[in-house]
Batch of 2 targets.
Target 1
Amino acid sequence: MQNFDYYNPTQIVFGQQRLNELDNLVPKDAKVLVLFGGGSVKRFGTLDKIKSSLGEREVLEFCGIEANPKFETLMQAVVLVQKENIDFLLAVGGGSVMDGTKFIALAANETSKYNELLFHGFEAVPVEKALPLGCIVTLPATGSEMNTFGVITYNEQKYPFNSPLVFPKFSVLDPDLTLTLPKEQIANGVADAFIHVIEQYLTQPQNAKIQDRFAEGILKTLIEDGAITYKDNNDIAARKNFMWSATSALNGLIGVGVMQDWSTHMIGHEMTAMFGIAHGRTLAIILPSLLRERKDHKREKLIQFAERVWDITDGTDDEKITKAIDKTESFFNSLDIITKLSHYDIDDNAIETLISNMEKMGLTQLSETGDLTLDIVRKILVAAK
Ligand code: NZQ
Ligand code: ZN
């Protein structure tokens, strides 16, 4: 295990019927901007509850942060924040709204070069101040509610950013707020959270027992309770476990002191940018093919994954690996995610364009060891046809 620092200041407010506690979470004298997406928050009554819980505070609204939030949309909110002297941002939604709000928080104190906030990859954005923000999660998936990351669409490409200044002050995780989700969004969320764990866990053996066992626990929980939540809207106990799994998958804890491989995400982001396929779904399409291509490279961890996550104890090591990857793909398929590119009309030409876009973005040396080249990306995608 490598040396590490771990710090996570986000207060988690977990459970049913907790929106009324907003009054204690948001500073009393704050002028608040509530930010949300295309309308689900209004349609299902969440906005009214939030406003009533915020009491006498001055509250403004910003509606219309789209999935895979666009720089231009967020800049409209930045103008509003600056004009109205907003001093607290409240994101209500899924990853897109939370990420968008983080960007707005960072941009709020800037006066120019807003787009340059997006050009630092996973290095911390070089700004000194950000507006404080809180989150109300309506879609368990990204873990944005308890981390420092965001992903913004700019010039039709997806740009990740990172800053410790945008740790949410608090995040409310009320499973009841997710009951209105369309089924496919639950499936996307389960796949996204599952693959967040995989990207931090399925690398090389590093004798990081706590991280490995937490990771395996989250994967097993997603397999059990993610699947139940997908099938049964009434099982609130399973939904609670799913929700906490998604947050735990990307709040930094399982990734401390270990190698990480974000290849599936980097390929997936390009697929979303080009074809508009939802984030979690792109990952589920790519991962099985990536694992098959990299099965020698990731051999030790794949055996561990087979034995401890899928309980595969019979057969040779090679058989265990094959079975584990097949079971992983079947798990995604059981959530009605089709894991073949042809289903999404992605042909050889589209694969070539995707690869050349990745090259333009500098995504040429992926994986935990930096040896996953674009030629290997091509093999992975061709095998997923
Ligand atoms: O806009 P509305 O009407 O609210 O509809 C949304 C949206 O269309 C709907 N939705 C959300 N909660 C709902 C609901 N519909 C009914 N009932 C509810 N309770 O769901 C749709 C998708 O929402 P979105 O926020 O886009 O989904 P998700 O949470 O999957 O976020 C995806 C974004 O997060 C980024 C992705 O790249 C993508 O842009 N990621 C952020 C990460 C992070 N910050 O750490 C890591 C991830 O790997 C990911 O890259
Ligand atoms: Zn993700």
Note: The mean pLDDT is 97.
Target 2
Amino acid sequence: MEYILDTANIADIKHCNEFYPLTGVTTNPSIIAKEKRDFWAIIKDIRDIIGPDKILFAQTVQKTADKIVEEAKLLNEKSGGNFGVKIPIDEEGLKATMALNKLGIKVLMTAIFTPAQALIAAKAGADYVAPYVNRLDNIIGDGTEVVAEIVEQFAIHGMTCKVLAASFKNAEQVHRCAAAGCQCVTVSADILKAVISHPMTDAAIAGFDKDWKGVYADKTILDF
Ligand code: E4P
């Protein structure tokens, strides 16, 4: 299971990269625009924090296959390390994915809402597909069920493409995608925190502290 951070916020990336077992960072044009800063400065700052080995995803804003490929090559060159280009699925995106696959540039086909879209993206050579879980749930769909169907379909057809589930609003959605066998989730810092949080955990930690302090006061193991 890979945990990826879905933000371009530098403070969140610094924090989560230090405290969580992240394998990378995803961005999209909306996430980048929220920062209201120079695009390349954001990419450089993210890379400086995560280092060259963790994967950084940035999305093309081009609309035609040739331009998507051109932008993907530039992003790949200037990203400073392990990189994947995000391309929304449509005809031009599929054509660009086939070309980028031949060039060895990793593609994350994004804005996936059905297993049929995911399968054809994988066939075109996408290394990852990103189904949008919460956006499906919001329209009375079942986002985690779609993720489960994609995982199953890839297994049936022997696809090596990874399922990178995206668009989460709670930890239960993350759990259900992991249980369905998706290989990666991309989540906000808040969702990562929600994944590790539980009131019973807080109570257990408070109990350990109280019992220890009742006998040893402020002494720690280092003081024995
Ligand atoms: C990732 O690929 C998507 O861009 C992102 O997770 C969408 O999340 P949202 O539905 O919260 O905007």
Note: Residues 182 and 191 are 17 Å apart (CA to CA).
